[in-house]
């Protein structure tokens, strides 16, 4: 994640990260727990945490790959600038036990404060 899905992002490394994470999730299905205890089972806790981290990493990489703009701490060097016309929306990701996560978008509801570009 540090090498391919950092703050400064590009399409090729992001796509590689998505592929790598899919392969790691496939390997995760074969995790074996050596500790079979039911009290303070740190092997089980570690395995469950690893599964959660793989899911979140995949969601982060996938949504970063699809979002072709810069916004907040997401900075695409191959798509500079913000694109409110096409990307003023929330990325919604849904778990799919039979394949990659399902990605959808919902519109941002603007209430009191208008979105503005961050300038430092």
> Helix/strand/pairing class, anyone?
alpha+beta
Please identify, by name, the CATH architecture: Up-down Bundle
- Residue share in β-strands: 5-15%
Compute the number of structural domains.
1
Largest sheet: 2 strands, parallel
Order of helices and strands: EHHEHEE
| Strand segment tally | 4
- Count of individual helical segments: 3
| Helix proportion range | 25-40%
CATH-defined superfamily? Fumarate reductase/succinate dehydrogenase flavoprotein-like, C-terminal domain
Radius of gyration: 18 Å
Compute the average pLDDT: 93
Biggest sheet: strand arrangement: 1-2
How would you describe the oligomerization state of the chains in this entry? single chain
**How far apart are the first and last residues' alpha carbons, in Å?**
26 Å
**Shape estimate:** elongated
CATH class: Mainly Alpha
Write the layout of secondary structure elements.
Blueprint: E1 8-9, H1 11-28, H2 42-66, E2 75-76, H3 84-87, E3 89-94, E4 102-107
Parallel strand pairs: 1-2
Antiparallel strand pairs: 3-4
Question: What does this molecule look like?
Answer:
By secondary structure, the chain is an alpha+beta fold. The chain has one domain: Fumarate reductase/succinate dehydrogenase flavoprotein-like, C-terminal domain (Methane Monooxygenase Hydroxylase, Chain G, domain 1, Up-down Bundle). Helices cover 39% and strands 13% of the residues. It has three helices and four strands, in the order βααβαββ. It has helices at 11-28, 42-66, 84-87, and strands spanning 8-9, 75-76, 89-94, 102-107. The chain has a two-stranded parallel sheet with strand order 1-2. The protein has a two-stranded antiparallel ribbon with strand order 3-4. Strand 3 and strand 4 form a beta hairpin. The longest helix has 25 residues, at 42-66. The protein is elongated and about 55 Å long.
